[in-house]
Amino acid sequence: MALVNIRPRASVLVTNHHKFVLIFRHKNNQDYYAVPGGGVEPGETPQDAAIREIMEELGLSIKNLKLISEIKDDGCHDFNFTAETDDSQIKVTGPEKNHLADPDNLFKPQWLDKSTIDHNLPVYPISSRNMFYNMLENL
């Protein structure tokens, strides 16, 4: 069996004091949260991809980028980071801005705190889920 070349992904849980950013998604008739991030481009480091994705998806400057885990298996190669920001205004600048008002493929980044998160909605990517819930406990 041939090995499939999986594109690495960088996900970043961004915090600002006691708040964090998740992206509320409604896609394929399902609601869920997504940890911001995306694919690592050829020639790009996971750290560079993390910074680029946060700028595209959230328009935030980040600091203290820290690799929490690297998960590689048959289905994924994910780099999970945490970072902080002093910015409070989210401004989507990448291609996702086309989905800010699309009811069938909604992309809605938002600042949340522990009390506002719906714990019944799943968090994706799956490899980031444990990082997210561990961080949530410490906020």
CATH architecture: Alpha-Beta Complex
Class inferred from helices and paired strands = alpha+beta
Shape: globular
* Terminal residue distance: 45 Å
Question: What share of the residues does DSSP label as strand, in percent?
Answer: 35-45%
Protein model, in words:
With 139 residues, the chain is of the alpha+beta class. It has one domain (9-129): Alpha-Beta Complex (Nucleoside Triphosphate Pyrophosphohydrolase). 19% of the residues lie in helices and 38% in strands.
Summarize the structure.
With 139 residues, the protein is of the alpha+beta class. It has 2 helices and 8 strands; from the N terminus they run ββββαββββα. The model has no long low-confidence stretch (mean pLDDT 88).
What distinguishing features does this structure have?
single chain; globular; 8-stranded mixed beta sheet; Nucleoside Triphosphate Pyrophosphohydrolase; alpha+beta; 139 residues
